[in-house]
C-alpha cells in the first residue's frame, strides 16, 4: 500500500529455536523512499468551427506521454526481498478526436444530430526490458496490457498430423488446437508465445439524435468501439469447465464426423486446449443502442394553475447490441471474466410533474 516505506510483517514468518517452530516477524519487501508521482506531458493542436449558428465542428490531434511509471525492476535473488517500485516506465498515446453537431428547426419540428469519434494508438515506450509472460503483458512497442499467448493454427485432423508436429501439452489427439512452433525447435513452450492482440480500442464513437414536435420528444443515443480484442477464460470458452454447463454454441465441437467444427474436441482434464492463445481471442468491437426516450409534455393550456409542468415518458436502456463476441457474454466484460454479469435491458415509464 505504501511502497515508499518499509514495514515489518508481524506473525508472517516462522523461526526455529531449540528445535521448536516459533512465529516471528520479518521484512519481506524492499521500499523506495525516492519514488514520486508519474508525470504526463500533453501536446495538441485543434480547430473549432461554428457555421451558420447551426453547425459545430471540432478536431484535435494530441500526443500524451507519461513518464516515471512505477515498476518493479529485477534485483538479485540473493537479496531475498521483493523488488521495490521504481519510477522507470514510459507510455505514449497518440490520436485524434473529432465531433460534429447540427441543429435546426422546420416550423414546429426541432431536431439536432451530434456525433463524435476518436482514434488512439497506445504504445509502451520503455519498460526497462521487463517482460511479463502472462495472458496480458506490457511489452515495449505494443499497447499496454496486450494479450500474450500462442498462435493457433487450426485443429489437428489426424494422428499423423499430431505425430508430425512439434510436441504440445498433455495427451494431444485429433481435434485439439494446433499451435505454431515460432522458433522451430520442435517443442511448443513459452518461447513460442507472442503478442496476439490488445483490449484497448483503437476507435470509440457515439451519436445522439434529439427530435421534438409539438410537445412530443424523442432522444436516441448510440455508442460503441472499433478494433478491439476480447478474451474470456474458464466456462466462457470450454464446455463443462470445472463442473459448469455447456453453452448452446459450444455444442459445435470437433468430432470425426464434424471436422469443420468451431470448437476443439471435448477433452477433460487435458491442458492443451486451454492454453492462452489466439484461438480464444475474439473481436470486441460493438455498436450499442444505449438509450432511447420518448416523451410528451402537455401544453400549459391543458394544465391547472398549480401545475407548471407535466410530462410523461418511457425509456429503454441497452436495447440491442451488434457485435461478434462470444454469444451470451457481455462484450464489455473485464478480460478473462466469464462470470461477469451482462448489462441488462431496462425499461422505464415515468411521470414528471412540477408545481
What do you see in this structure?
This protein has one helix spanning 159-163; strands at 9-17, 20-26, 39-51, 55-72, 85-106, 109-126, 136-137, 146-149, 152-155, 177-179, 194-197, 203-213, 216-226, 229-231, 281-283, 286-297, 309-323, 346-354. The chain is mainly β and 355 residues long. It is extended. 16% of the residues are buried.
From the structure above, extract its key features.
1 helix; 18 strands; mainly beta; 355 residues
The number of distinct helices, counting runs of at least 4 residues, comes to 1
Q: Could you tell me the radius of gyration in angstroms?
A: 28 Å
Instruction: Record the strand order, biggest sheet.
Output: 3-4-5-6-12-13-16-17-18
* Low-pLDDT ranges: none
Q: Write the H/E string, N to C.
A: EEEEEEEEEHEEEEEEEEE
Q: How many strands?
A: 18
Strand residues, percent: over 45%
Shape: extended
SSE class: mainly beta
Give helix % range.
under 10%
The overall pLDDT, averaged over residues, is 89
